[in-house]
Amino acid sequence: MKTKFKALFRALPVMLLATLALTATVVPVSAAISVNIVGTPSGTVYSQFTVSATEVTASTQYSIVLLQNGIERFAGNVTSDGDGNIPNSPVQVPPAPAGYHSVLLKQGSATIATASTTFTVYPSISVTPTTAPVGSQVMVNGTGYALNSLVTLTLGTTTLQPQITYLPNGSFSASFTVPPVARNTHNISAKDAFNNINVNIASLAVTPGIANITPIEGKVGDTITVTGGGFTAGGSVQLYFDTVSEANLLKTITANASTSTNPGAISTTIVIPAAARGNHNIIARDVSSTTNTPGKVYTVTPKIILTPVSGAVGSAVTVTGSGFSANTSVSFEWDGSAISGVAAVTTNATGGFTKTFNIPNATSGEHTITARDATGPAEAVYTVAAKITLNPTSGTAGSTVSVQGNGFQTIGTVSITYDNAVMTTATLTNGTFTATFTIPGGVAGNHTIMATDGLSNTATETFTSTLSATLSPITSTAAPGHVGQELTLTGTGFLPTSAITASFGTSAIGSATSDATGAFTITFKAPAVTTGNHTVTVTDGTNTRTFTFVMEGVAPAAPVLVAPDGVNKPKQPIVYEWDDVTDDSGVTYTLEVFTNAELNILILKKEGLTTSSYTATETEKLPSVSKDAPYYWRVIATDGAGNVGDPATPISFVVGFSFADLIPDDVPTWAWITIGVFVLLIAGGLGYYFYRRSYSY
């Protein structure tokens, strides 16, 4: 046993050393690894940057990865040397979004260490081609921008409208049409929504070119707009069709001056010359620099022009064509069918022709004439001119209208309708006729008169049926009406045998039934309404006419009071009387009795009195008053239109007995003193007399 313990103690140091050795091999290497970015810690996509590391496993391959928002992007592989160091090793910035990225040292999928500083990715762009004329397409590719962010492209100071495709990892591809800017080298910038902008210089050398032609397709003789730029400022620019030759020169213009906001730009119109069907080039030549722009394609399509565009069957029409295929045969059709007896023609070198023929038998209205070559047709509308004229073209129901027509079939009859109702027929002579009929009652407004022959040739014209309605007598501000005035509404041209109603404001005032021509008469009296304008309406439910009735606004005169007259004391119940007041609108009266001269204490008021007197009731008897505190009464007249007249001049009166009535009102003060002295003397004498007499007894 002792021998075993001794052996164990001898082996213990060796075991401890072995344990320490094993422990050392599993301690994470990253605890002592240092990763650094050598040089500037920033750059654009595909640029290189240098990394170094120490204390890594000797002679081992590692990968450098950029990390942003949890997404790793591979930058390159590096290998350590025999001493466990990674010397300055270049790697490439991978396609990555703008901003800060952590730099990771990885072995397989395991992160061994992170650089002490971050790496910043900056945006950059490339332009293809770097020289382009105005109106051509240019590609811009960008890297190092924010993910899926809106990118704004600018050419110099001009904001572009590109077609942008967003690619992964903050990249994009865009194409744009070079706008009409000045001939020069212009910097191109691309900025995203987070204000990340390319750090490299990208430029485009702009040369003369046509930016746009509008439209890009049309016919010979059409006017199109041509815009462009990059020409010599203030210099001459010649526009050509197909080739730069004197025969094909369309126009000479002057480019914008150098002092303009867009030097070297052009904007003008040209007329497409005679040319065969197909694509043709519009070319601009900068005279100063003898530079020709690339051709801008304009496509010529065929057309025909008819002269005239309408006429009767059998009349001649001339068809002028342009833009057809050159030196080819053109045939003619009427409503899609070949025209009997009309031969084909051959176009000239520019695809033009002229052909005259007679209009075949056809109904009135629009028809299609087609000119067709081997490539395709061109069409125009011809109107067979069956035609009618009206005399007169408007009137009320019951009036007579004359209809004259021409351009119909040679012989036969024609039927005349009014809103599809047959009015009459007429006999045709060499395609002409004359007929008359009476306009029936109906709705006011436009109505269709149609003439139709046996071949269904039709012609229409519009007859305007008018209403005739009057309100009499006519009132105005200068000559107003009054309540109860007799008024008459008359009309014609309303719906026949229909109920006609009339209203004054919103109140019905009368009705009638119209006769066969829509005529009627309604008589009514003006109702009691306020002064001013009022609307009188008459309608058959479809046709309506309105009139203005002006109600008079003159107030009635002030009444003259008769009794109580202020002299004679009235008996009760009191009978109040006043003179009649006359007014066209009729009057009513308001009686008021007051207890004071200020007329602000009202004790009796009777409104709406229709006669010029009022007898008080038993309950309306007045208490007795003295002449020192009399009653006052007055009357106000109001007419049927609500016009209130001035009040009558008030009169005072008293009723009943009062001691104050025994005393005259006109005794002067000195008389009252004298009377007082006499009263005192008489009283004193009587007193003395009775005293003496009582003393003697």
UniProtKB/TrEMBL annotation:
This protein's record includes keyword Transmembrane:
yes
Q: Keywords in UniProt for this one?
A: Membrane, Signal, Transmembrane, Transmembrane helix
Q: Which domain of life is it from?
A: Bacteria
Name the InterPro entries for this protein.
Ig-like_fold (IPR013783), Ig_E-set (IPR014756)
Question: Which N-terminal stretch is annotated as signal sequence?
Answer: 1-31
Its transmembrane ranges are 670-691
Keyword Magnesium found = no
Gene3D superfamilies given in the database record: Immunoglobulins (2.60.40.10)
Name of the featured protein: IPT/TIG domain-containing protein
Q: Which organism is it from?
A: Candidatus Dehalogenimonas loeffleri
